[in-house]
Amino acid sequence: MNKLSLFLALAVCSGTYAESRELPPIINNSTYANGSAYSTRTSANQPMLEMLGRVESLQSDIQQLRGMLEEQSHEINRLKQREQNIYADMHARLQKLESAAGISASTAVVVPKPVSAPVQPAYTGAPVLAAAQPAQAKPKRVKKVKPKSRAEEKEEFDTAFASVKNSHYQQAIKQLEQFLQDYPDGVYSDNAHFWLGSVYKVVNDLPAAKKNFQAVYTQFHKSEKAAMAMLKLADIYSEEKDAAKARKLYQKISTQYPDSTAAHMAAKEL
């Protein structure tokens, strides 16, 4: 009985002591840890976000530049095609004229009449007084000619080529001859020789035509007109019944310019 009372007393005392003791504060470690991690992660990702923004801006600029480049390429191709169409049309027109039966009088080449030598008076035995020598004129000062620009060269060639297109052949001959005097090694000199040879062929001045066609592929062998000029010259030899020279040029075209249109045309002639 005494032991049971003592045990109950001890239990009551321990419970009372436990209730009177203060509990430590509760710390929410999970919340504190998550907040710290979020703040650290935000500050670490800031440079990455800025870099992504710059990359997107660069990609936008590249797309704009690609668009501009495509537009310029399309415009260049359009201009090249337009120039090729003009040349093709001129070739067709000149070939029709070359194959025509006759040439009109307005386009025929006028050959100047030979000037007869002056008749010397018969000797009469009387002394002939020497004519008074005129006073020598002072030499004129030669003005320095300013070299012409690339734009002026193109403008003069376009003017001459317009005369060819409009069938003003005598005017075209004068303009192209003058152009070649002003620009013997110009950017358009190969074209000038080619069209001058074509016009001379139309007006039936074959020696001048052959001379200009030959100048294209000998002086400007890398020109786009070189193969066609060689073909034109070979056609003239063929018309003159000079089969050996014509065949030699046809074979030369196939060797030097195998992928050109002139080479395919030469192969048909061979």
Report on this model:
The structure is a single chain. Among the domains are: 48-87; 151-270, Serine Threonine Protein Phosphatase 5, Tetratricopeptide repeat, CATH 1.25.40. Helix content is 68%, strand content 0%. The chain has helices spanning 2-20, 29-98, 150-165, 169-182, 189-202, 206-219, 226-239, 243-256, 261-269. The chain is elongated. The chain starts with a helix and ends with a helix. Mean pLDDT is 74; it is low at 101-117, 121-132 and 142-146.
Brief overview, please?
By secondary structure, the protein is mainly alpha-helical. The protein has helices at about 1-20, 30-100, 150-165, 170-180, 190-200, 205-220, 225-240, 245-255, 260-270.
Keywords:
270 residues; mainly alpha; Serine Threonine Protein Phosphatase 5, Tetratricopeptide repeat; 9 helices; elongated
